[in-house]
Design a protein that fits this description.
Layout: E1 2-10, H1 14-22, H2 24-30, E2 39-42, E3 49-55, E4 61-72, E5 76-86, E6 89-91, H3 95-98, E7 103-112, E8 115-124, H4 126-147
Antiparallel strand pairs: 1-8, 2-3, 3-4, 4-5, 5-6, 5-7, 7-8
Helix pairs in contact: 1-4, 2-4
Length: 149
């Protein structure tokens, strides 16, 4: 696993950026950079299970099984990835999943002079790093556009 880092400055207070990132309607828009139809099912509350879903290559539901490891509203969010969803079925025990289960995706929100810096740190399997290095800047740019409206 390697740690990937991304950040962006958004001309909006951190409360607005946080809400734009997590509210269902806007979440679906900024995460299209990862896959059209991306959405979540579950809660952002600490300890809650959450599924990050979208249509797979075969048109069937796919995505990630995760847990909210930490949620300090407007300041920090940590997501622990526990498994995958394939064809609508959760997998948290296959050998493929065991290779990266426990990977973290952390978001830090720092406000200064009415602007918010969003810092994303995530564990990534080396096979996916190039893909994430391409997708994350696009997703954060879209989040910025939405939050600055």
């Amino acid at each position: 696993m390697e740690k990937l880092h991304f950040k962006i400055e958004i001309d909006a207070p951190k409360e607005k950026v946080w809400n734009t990132m997590l509210e269902d309607k806007t979440y679906r828009i900024w995460t299209e950079a990862f896959a059209p139809g991306s959405h979540y099912v579950g809660s952002w509350e600490k300890g809650s299970k959450i599924l990050f879903l979208g249509p797979g290559e075969n048109g069937k539901l796919g995505g990630m099984v995760s847990k909210i490891k930490e949620n300090r509203k407007y300041d920090f969010l940590s997501i622990e990835h526990l498994g995958m969803v394939n064809d609508g079925k959760e997998d948290t025990s296959s050998d493929e999943v065991k290779n990266w289960a426990g990977a973290l995706e952390n978001y830090t929100f720092k406000e200064k002079n009415g602007k918010t810096e969003v810092v994303v740190e995530m564990d990534s399997n080396e096979n996916y790093s190039e893909m994430f290095n391409d997708m994350w800047p696009k997703a954060l740019k879209k989040l910025k556009e939405l939050a600055e409206k």
